[in-house]
Structures are given as structure tokens and as C-alpha cells.
């Protein structure tokens, strides 16, 4: 059945390409944008911009306000090269020029380094971080990158699996990511300069991931991703960060986009509010897995239904002199997932829990904010962000008795609402000195509740033993203050020092985190960097509200978790646009919650979700150390690839002092991502790409067969915590897309395939109480999953 459907997709794709290739009229488009100083955000007039390899050579010079426009650029993929005296030459990655949409690009240029003569000795590339103070473990990404990487389906978490040191944290249906052996809890999400709650559909409590991001890729501007060693402006994160920026809408013309596929529908529009001064961009998406399920492709499971929808927008305006800019941005998402039991009672296996369970879980999240940026003078600017936001995660789990009667065994409800502000002041005192300081505040209104009902077996709920595990409501605040200064010691040496202070009003705990980074430019091709610093994170707020039977809350005063990072990095960029990067890292974890029991191996950062439902103490220790290697070819000459491999170790110390591997100590992570683009004379393009993931398997704790059989449930083997390891994870993804252009519209027909070879990967083990043995659990969505979509722009 599936093979027939796949053949049908191929026939449909072939017919479409045959018809689209018939168009041969040359088409062109306008490329516009602005060029600014990366640190001061001042517009740069007189910057020379050329379209590389265009014939005849196309180019222009930026005006007094830093803006530029290049007309008659043929459709296709082109790079812009920007040159300006005293600044590093900047080359964009390939920009897709289509017949239906004006290309808008925001370019930030960094001041150059002078040697014996006035010579710019380093060049900026399209994946350099937007934040020029990030010296290690950082890169930028674009909306086009989230589209072209196979099986990313415009999702940042899935895209990040192609980057060094990153592996999936849950199963193939989720976008949780593990960075260098750290829990996914340790990732920060920031939007337009303000920290936000977990921005994912089907979010789970205590994590940073879910099913798919609420962010619409259509709204993304170039954004940053960090895997460690963040500058002092980032706090409340142990492992990494996504720093997301929304784009501005078209200032001159209205544009529309419609997309339909097996995952649902997507609509977007953008255009001017007041020509040349203000704009809007908005996107709505509705998705359901029902169509995929009907076709026989079960991304989550045969008895699981999923629906989600989201809305994102960004309004932009600026003053006549362009010294003041404001935005009004927002995003919101609703998602619901329903797991149903096996319909026929006679087919239910008494040893498999999900045969009997009826589970509903979902999450809602929204953010509405406004930014104001004021260029005070040529050397400094002030930025403020004010936002209201909220998130709600809920679960209702029932189990069926042998008489087919439902009993509720788990109820969870987590509500988090915030009024937040972020203020920053940046100043460049001289060519050698610059600084940035800021304040981030959150006023939090919370309400958490979790109730469980013990089960003596899968089908037997003891209703008279209902237990309230979490119960708390009220108001609290968090405060973050930071300052950092960058000193260009010599043309080759630069040093960044900073301090971040994090305070939680709930239990009056605080952390002071010093950070230091250094960069040495050996020559135009080679750079050495180092970062060392302390990174702290408060626990997920609900973790403080575990409630004992008599109402006491033993975890209310837990301190923050600390992680000391040391990273050494070497980067080599060849003249042919090949980038070689090596990073050695060591992370020392302290004050991690553990259970104060000599027989317990509990360590909070091993949790994939939820919170400890017992008393814990912050005496746990751990470490992550390893090496990340990456070879990348930027998207030039119609080819790109990124190959990376990581070797690492991740361990922790339990309460009794014994050392164990962590849940995420898979030992190695590797990924090969590549693609090739074929261009036709009419400007249409065919793109084919793939991604191969090969990682060590996740850990599990073996069971004690005697005690498990005696007690009728899984009992961990004493002293063997996380010593078991499932087989290696392998997955091959593929993508093929065809982009066509017409006089008044353009379109893309694409097919993403997750797990081309239908590899049955293992993510954990389960215990069969009837037969008393452990069995491997395969990833949900472990089959061949095609995602066909058609997009039109007009």
C-alpha cells in the first residue's frame, strides 16, 4: 500500500515538473535591504554591494540611510558581497531570488582589523552569529536553511540536529534536543530580545521542546543558535540558546503566500502599512496528522490524533530620520493530542499499558510584545522590550478496567503567565572599547496542580488513594542584570568580559555568573577562541511545589543549578569557502537535585520531562566533556554540505558518591547534511538533499529480574544506574523540491522524507509485568514518513 502511494507521489511530481519546465521567459526581481554596523546599529552609507558572478556585474552603493536596491536581478540563487573601508568584507549565503517576491535582506557589518596597512584581514560569512560578541559555539541560521535541510519541515529543533554536538532528546516525533550531553531543560528561548516560555506545540512540562515549534518559518529573520559558552547577556540556561528574530514585512508592495500539504495549511501575507516607513507580516497555520494517518503513515501512532494551529505576526515602523524603530510582535499556538486504547477489549495485551489507556494532553502558548530602539548618537543605542506571555500545559490520563470502565489515574495542569521587560544599552566608546548592559524582569503569575491515583496493575486503579503531588498558586518575580565589555587589545587580540546576575523572588535565591571570552586571529584564515564562565539556571517553577501528604513543600528552597563552561575553539576558513571547526569543551555541573537516599540514583537532569515527586537536595554533581569536529561547505556553486562528529562523555555523582553515566551519555554524535541545486535556463531550480544521523544509543538502567517478578513491576538493578545502552541510532532523511517562476507568481513543490530506510530505532526499554522481561521500545514515527507540500507566492 505504502509503495503504491509513494509511486503516486513520484508520478505527480514528475507531471508537475514536466509542465513547469515548459516556461522559458527570462524573469528578474528586485533585491533591497539595509546595511548597518553590527554593534552600534548605525546605518552605513557608501557600502559597495555587488551580486557575485552576475553577468553583466550588478551592484550598487548604499545611500545615506544605509539602504540599497538592485534591480533586474535574474531569478535564481545569488550571493551579495559587501565592502566598506574599515569593515570586514561580508558575503551572504545564497539568496533565493524568485519572480513573485522582492528580496529583502538586513546586513550587519563588523569593523575590520588593521595590520601593517589599512587592510581588512577577515571576512564575514552568512552563518556568522548575528551577535558579534559570541566568540565560540555559535552560528546563525535563516528561514531558507530550515526549509532546505531534509526532514526539518521548517522546525528549528529538527534543523539543529545537523549541527555539532546536537542529538534528538525524545523520539522522532519530538524536537527536544540534547546539547553536549545536557538535558533539554537547559535551553533558553529568546524572541526579539525577551526570554519566553517553551514555544512548542505539544510542549511537555520541565522541557524546552515538544512536537514542532510555534514559530512560523515565514516570519524568521537571521537568528542565532548557541551550544555553550554564551555571552553575559544570556542567563537562566545551562546548555544553549535559540535567539530568534522576526523579519520586517515588505515596505513597498503587498505579497501573499499559501501552502498546502500532508501536514496542513499555511497562509501568510506582508506589505506596507505606510510606504517606506512601516510594514506588517502575518502567518496562520493549521495542521493535523489525520491525512497522514488515513494514508497509512503514522507519525506518532496508529491510535493517536494530533491537531495544532498557530498565528504569528510582526508590525514594524520607523521615524523619518530612522533613528527610532518600533515593532509590535506576537505569536500564539494551540495543540491537542489524543491517545486512544485498543478498541477491541479482546485484543488488549494485559502487559502493555497503552493498550488500556485513554490519554489527552495538550499545550497552549502565546506572547504579545513591543520593542523600541533609539539610536542615541553615532556610538550608542537603547533598546526596550515589553511583553505579556502565557503558557498552559495539561494532561488527563485514564485507564480502562477489565470491565471497560475508565478510571482517571493522572491529572496535570500547569499555568504560567508573565509580564516581562528587557532593557539594554550599547555603547562603543572607541575603536577598541565597547560595552552592553541590560536588565530583564519577569512578573510571574502561576498555578500548578498534579494529582495521581496509584495503580496496583495496569487495569486496577485504587481510587481511595488519590494523591496530590503538586499544588501551588501565586505570584513571583525573576530579575536578571548583566554587563559586558569588549576590548580590542591589538588588531589580532580581543577580550570580552562580563557578569550576569540572576535572582528568583520565590525563594530569594540568586547567582552571580562571571564570563570571559578571548579571540586571537592568527591570520585571515585561522582563528583561535576561548570561553570560560559560570552559567546558572533556576529549576522549572513547578519543581518547587512538590507537596507531601501533610502539605509540606520540602523542595521550596532549592538553589539554582550551576554549570562552569570551558571551551577552546579553532576555526579555519579556506578561500574556497570550506570551514573547518574544532571545539574542545568541559562542563562542570553543581547543585543538581538528587534524592537524599543512599540507595537512590536519582539525578534531576536525567529526567526527560516532569519534576521530582519526592524530596530532593541540591548536592548532585556532574560533568560533560568532549570534542566537536565540523567541516562545512557554504552554499556556493550550487552545493552545500555539513559533516560533523562529536566524541563525549557525560556522567554524574549520585547522593552516595558513586559515579554513573547520565541518561544522555550516548558517547558519540554524528551527522552528514548535504544538498545539490540544479538550475535551468528559465531560472527554475531543482534541489535534492539528504541527511544521515548516526548517534550512540541512549542509556537505560537494567532491571532486577527477581525483585521485579516478586513485586510485579520494574525494579532497577542496584548499582547499575544507566549502565545499559540501546543500539546505535541511525536515520536517513531526504528532500527533493522544485522551484518554478512565472511572471506574477512562483511556487515550490517539495517532498521531505523522514527515515527513508524505515530504520527501526530504539529509544528506551519497557517492562512486561506478565512475562517479567525488558523489551526494546521503538521510536514512534519510526517508519518511512513522507511530507508532501505545495507552496505558491504571489
Strand content: over 45%
Distance between the termini: 36 Å
Indicate the CATH topology of the largest domain.
Maltoporin, Chain A
How helical, in percent, are the residues?
under 10%
CATH superfamily heading of the largest domain: TonB-dependent receptor, beta-barrel domain
Main beta-sheet strand count, sense and barrel state: 22 strands, antiparallel, barrel
- Total beta strand runs: 48
Label the CATH architecture of the largest domain.
Beta Barrel
Task: Report the uncertain regions.
Answer: 1-9, 115-123
Q: Count of helices?
A: 5
How many domains would you count in the coordinates?
A: 2
CATH class of the largest domain: Mainly Beta
Task: Offer a concise description of the structure.
Helices cover 5% and strands 53% of the residues. It has 5 helices and 48 strands.
Brief descriptors of the model:
mainly beta, 22-stranded antiparallel barrel, 5 helices, single chain, 794 residues, 5% helix, 2 domains
Draw up the topology in text:
Elements: H1 2-20, E1 28-37, E2 48-51, E3 58-61, E4 67-74, E5 76-78, E6 80-83, E7 89-91, E8 95-97, E9 103-109, E10 123-125, E11 138-141, H2 143-148, H3 156-159, E12 166-168, E13 177-179, E14 187-191, E15 194-195, E16 200-201, E17 212-213, E18 223-226, E19 240-244, E20 255-261, E21 264-274, E22 278-288, H4 290-294, E23 304-318, E24 324-339, E25 357-375, E26 380-400, E27 406-428, E28 433-452, E29 455-457, E30 460-461, E31 467-487, E32 493-504, E33 509-521, E34 526-537, E35 561-573, E36 578-594, E37 617-636, E38 639-653, E39 659-661, E40 668-679, E41 685-695, E42 699-700, H5 705-711, E43 724-725, E44 729-741, E45 746-754, E46 762-768, E47 773-778, E48 785-793
Parallel strand pairs: 1-9, 7-10, 14-19
Antiparallel strand pairs: 1-4, 2-3, 2-6, 5-8, 6-7, 11-18, 12-13, 14-15, 16-17, 18-19, 20-21, 20-48, 21-22, 22-23, 23-24, 24-25, 25-26, 26-27, 27-28, 28-31, 29-30, 31-32, 32-33, 33-34, 34-35, 35-36, 36-37, 37-38, 38-39, 38-40, 40-41, 41-44, 42-43, 44-45, 45-48, 46-47
